[in-house]
């Protein structure tokens, strides 16, 4: 099921294998979770790609805007943010870190902007960032590269209103709640 507009921001969730064991009802089941940013999908759309339990609670945190930083990033390019974030959190030893705008690096140093805990849903090596700006939410997605001369690639982003973002997140939570009720 898809909620939102895939050309703007959307979430697609599929449930393939329900967990019915007593005591594990909250785990929902196995399925897939794909996020669309400006028409580009991030995530693995295969049966049983991820356990939906962690995603449910990550979405609850997103709805409450827990653990996300509000940052003054309006004047920074998406590529500057993505590169700085990658080097600060994933590869501080890269020779390319010297190319990072020091102002971006300073702003992102202790920022909490990565979507948690979607690693298993994003086994396609993608990283999703959510930055709360003054009146909008800026979403940036990119892939970690396996090429020697580049560290990240395919950066896509969009800014959406907080209302639109909340509508998509709440609708995704409703889908997961309905999966729970279908036991």
Brief characterization of the structure:
This protein has four helices and eight strands. It is α+β, with helices and mostly antiparallel strands.
Radius of gyration: 17 Å
Strand content: 25-35%
Total strands? 8
Report the major sheet: 5 strands, antiparallel
Shape: globular
Structural class: alpha+beta
What average pLDDT do the residues reach? 79
Spans of 5+ residues with little confidence (pLDDT < 50)? none
What does this protein structure show overall?
The protein has 183 residues and is of the alpha+beta class. The chain has 4 helices and 8 strands, in the order E-E-E-E-E-H-H-H-E-E-E-H. It has helices spanning 52-64, 78-89, 102-108, 162-181, and strands at residues 2-5, 9-18, 29-37, 40-42, 50-51, 126-132, 136-144, 152-161. The strands form 2 sheets. Strands 1, 2, 3, 4 and 5 form a 5-stranded antiparallel β-sheet that branches. A 3-stranded antiparallel β-sheet has the order 6-7-8. A hairpin with a 7-residue loop joins strand 7 and strand 8 (152-161). The chain starts with a strand and ends with a helix. The model has no long low-confidence stretch (mean pLDDT 79).
Features:
alpha+beta, 28% helix, 30% strand
Helix-strand layout with pairing:
Blueprint: E1 2-5, E2 9-18, E3 29-37, E4 40-42, E5 50-51, H1 52-64, H2 78-89, H3 102-108, E6 126-132, E7 136-144, E8 152-161, H4 162-181
């Amino acid at each position: 099921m898809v909620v939102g507009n895939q050309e703007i921001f959307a979430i697609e969730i599929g449930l393939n294998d329900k967990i019915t064991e007593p005591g594990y009802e909250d785990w929902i089941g196995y399925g897939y979770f794909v996020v669309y940013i400006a028409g580009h999908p991030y995530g693995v759309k295969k049966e049983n790609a991820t356990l939906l339990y962690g995603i449910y609670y990550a979405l609850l945190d997103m709805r409450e805007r827990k653990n996300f930083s509000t940052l003054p990033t309006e004047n920074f390019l998406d590529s500057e943010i993505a590169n700085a974030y990658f080097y600060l959190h994933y590869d501080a030893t890269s020779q390319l870190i010297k190319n990072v705008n020091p102002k971006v690096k300073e702003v992102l140093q202790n920022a909490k902007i990565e979507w948690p805990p979607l690693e298993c849903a994003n086994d396609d090596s993608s990283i999703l960032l959510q930055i709360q700006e003054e009146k909008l939410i800026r979403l940036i997605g990119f892939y970690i590269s396996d090429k020697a001369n580049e560290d990240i690639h395919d950066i896509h982003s969009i800014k959406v209103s907080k209302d639109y973002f909340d509508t998509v997140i709440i609708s995704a939570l409703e889908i997961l709640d309905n999966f729970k009720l279908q036991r």
